[in-house]
Amino acid sequence: GINAEYGKASGINAEYGILPTCIFNSRDPIVMGVTVINGVLKTGTPICVPAKEFVFLGIVTSLEINNKQIDTATTGQDVCIKIENAGGEAPKLYGRHFDENDVLVSRITRDSIDTLKTYFRDDMSKTDWKLIVELKKLFEIM
Length: 142
What we know:
The chain is an alpha+beta fold. It has 3 helices and 9 strands, in the order αβββββββββαα. The strands form 2 sheets. Strands 1-2-8-5-4-9 form a 6-stranded antiparallel barrel. Strands 3-7 form a two-stranded antiparallel sheet. Strand 1 and strand 2 form a beta hairpin. Helix 1 packs antiparallel against helix 2.
């Protein structure tokens, strides 16, 4: 339905820690294990690295747990993700553009926040909204 489409567009916002022992491919596509620190991770989520001047890594095109494809991972789950380079961007390299000390976040925009408010208000917890407020400050979205 329409929510599924907007869900993909919005990439409900979250933070992810890198599992340094689970780097399977360091560039184009980046394939690595991450822990969902908070929030939700979905396929279609754009990923960036705030500590590295918000370098944009690409789009999450697949999630796997124990070699099974999943659509969504939530807080506390360890998952293997594939991040594909977005068209027009130079491919980013694990170890050069970012490393295991960085926290990855889903890149949010004014549009994605508005989408969440419009279509996902009922699905979002207080914690989710708190995270979005923090990310808005981080990304300087007014």
